[in-house]
Specification:
The protein has 543 residues and is mostly helical. The protein has two domains: 192 residues, Orthogonal Bundle (MetI-like fold); 275 residues, Orthogonal Bundle (MetI-like fold). Helices cover 76% and strands 1% of the residues. The protein has 25 helices and two strands. Strands 1-2 form a two-stranded parallel sheet. Helix 1 crosses helix 13 and helix 7 runs antiparallel to helix 10. The longest helix is centred in the middle third of the chain and has 34 residues.
Length: 543
């Protein structure tokens, strides 16, 4: 009976999942098309440089983020010192700061004409670049530093949680055996936290592989910039698809390496609530070092760039506060709201199918739909363009066949393509949030409702929806924020004349005029702080 009731819902779930996975399939098929002219030229000239730069950037950013995050995570999870209570959530703030904005701020500070080098020349009497050496920030190393500063919270959050959840009995045993805090960290805590660290490093690596704005601003040729230039510069969709397929291969290799690295790891430990007495008490000297490191990191990664943005916004407020700013804000808010609503509806449908269907195969739609989150924005844009362009041409050909005027590019020439791309990219976030909420609902409620003659629709409406409220809200909030910040897909898919806050800020960054877009950048950052506050409150309730 349940199988019969679930069949129509299951078909709907498969239809939605097929639609969401279509860009990935279209991208692969397009990449298999022959193209010797452009792609052959790229292979013979610059493609090896693109690949090497991408791999080097991934390596250095992953290493840099790991070295920044590990000490902070250990200090916040297992040590007690002045300021720890505030720093443990403040260290998440850099996630709200887009990398390209941090890159611009530091370029403005550290370039030859910037205040740092001007001050050095004034103090030491230097007159030209030949008189002294100063590292060039617009290099691959500079891009790695910028991305490490904004991405290390991924590893910090997962590592801190892993350290907090480790068995206290093992920590007590290490103390009894005479291990110092450093020995306890190196021999016990770090090996046990390897699964969490592997996941964190994989996330950082995938975000680095997907980055476009920072490397584009620093003029570092990577695969993401190559996709952008090939599509807009050469107008060659097939060559762009081939480059996108290489990026996709790198991303899936990273996911596979992360899972392979911890394939045999099994940790069985009794978790217990950490009390203040279980933390290591740092001495005055140790507290000074710990505070200095954490505060300096927070200052460099968030406080300094955000403070400079505020000074820019105040100085150029009259130029920024106009009708166009409100229109851009409305465009961003509308896109984000529509995307979050659609993603939550899709997540609700797919997870409801998993809930009521006894067939193992009905787990597949939600998993297929979640694959889009692994697609970088530039890759996703190419994948969306291929099927929607074909559909646009098919609609116009049909109109011509019927003797009607063709509607034109109603999909790729409107915000439809942008919304579709955002949904493909971020529906996995909503699915994860709804799935987490469903796990807290007892299956016996479903059995009781079906026994009382309720249809699947009534079960969803009267039982599940009231209990899924918090999960749906959290998923919608996270999708909303990600949609506000997404840049590469918006740059490639936006209709002519359409701008949102992200593309608006990026145009000013590209023109070396972030001052005029600082107000819009502040809005993006402030909106990005909302899920971090929500996340911090959730962690405090569970710690």
């Amino acid at each position: 009976m349940i199988l019969g009731l679930a069949r129509s819902w299951s078909l709907a779930g498969y239809a939605v999942a097929t639609l969401l996975v279509l860009p990935l399939v279209a991208l692969i098929l397009q990449a298999l098309q022959p193209d010797e002219a452009v792609f052959g030229h790229l292979m013979a000239t610059v493609l090896p440089t693109y690949i090497i730069n991408s791999l080097l950037l991934i390596f250095w950013v992953s290493l840099g983020a790991l070295l920044l995050a590990l000490p902070c995570a250990w200090l916040m999870a297992r040590c007690e010192f002045v300021g720890r209570r505030y720093l443990q959530w403040a260290l998440l703030l850099p996630l709200a700061m887009p990398g390209y904005i941090v890159a611009y701020v530091y370029t403005d500070l550290l370039d030859y004409a910037g205040p740092v080098q001007r001050s050095l020349r004034s103090i030491f009497g230097w007159n030209s670049p030949q008189d002294y050496f100063f590292p060039d920030i617009r290099t691959l190393g500079g891009a790695a530093c910028m991305l490490s500063l904004v991405l290390f919270p991924y590893i910090y959050l997962l590592a801190r949680t892993a350290f907090m959840e480790q068995s206290l009995s093992l920590a007590h045993a290490s103390r009894i055996m005479g291990c110092s805090p450093w020995q306890s960290f190196w021999r016990l805590s770090l090996p046990m936290a390897r699964p969490a660290l592997a996941v964190g490093v994989a996330l950082v690596a995938m975000e680095t592989a997907a980055d476009f704005a920072t490397v584009n601003y620093f003029a570092v040729p990577t695969l993401t910039t190559a996709v952008y230039d090939t599509w807009l510069g050469y107008g060659n969709l097939t060559a762009a698809a081939k480059l996108s397929a290489i990026i996709l291969l790198v991303v899936f290799c990273l996911i596979g390496l992360e899972r392979f690295a911890r394939r045999k790891q099994q940790l069985f430990q009794k978790q217990s609530r950490i009390q203040a007495s279980d933390l290591y008490r740092l001495s005055t000297a140790q507290t000074t070092v710990a505070l200095s490191f954490c505060v300096a990191l927070l200052l460099l990664a968030f406080l300094l760039p955000f403070g400079i943005l505020i000074s820019y916004a105040i100085g150029y407020f009259e130029q920024s506060w106009d009708g166009r700013f409100w229109q851009l804000s409305l465009n961003s808010l509308s896109l984000a709201l529509i995307t979050s609503l659609i993603c939550c509806l899709i997540a609700l449908l797919l997870m409801f199918v998993r809930r009521i269907s006894p067939r193992p195969s009905d787990v597949l739609p939600s998993r297929l739909a979640s694959t889009g989150y692994a697609l970088p924005g530039t890759v996703l844009a190419i994948g969306v363009l291929v099927p929607l362009t074909m559909l646009d041409f098919a609609i116009n050909d049909l109109a011509d066949l019927l003797g009607l005027n063709g509607p034109g590019l109603i999909l790729t020439g409107s915000v439809v393509a942008l919304i579709f791309a955002f949904c493909v990219r971020f529906v996995a976030i909503a699915i994860g949030s709804v799935e987490s909420s469903y796990k807290r609902i007892s299956p016996s409620l479903d059995m009781v409702s079906l026994t009382m003659g309720q249809s699947p629709r009534q079960l969803l409406q009267r039982v599940h929806l009231p209990l899924l409220g918090k999960g749906l809200f959290a998923g919608a909030l996270l999708v909303f924020i990600e949609s506000m910040k997404e840049l590469p897909a918006a740059l490639l898919l936006r209709p002519i004349g359409f701008e949102n806050l992200a593309t608006y800020v990026f145009q000013f960054v590209s023109d070396e005029k972030l001052e005029h877009g600082a107000l819009a950048a502040i809005v993006i950052v402030l909106v990005g702080l909302v899920p971090l506050i929500y996340l911090n409150r959730s962690l405090e309730h569970h710690s």
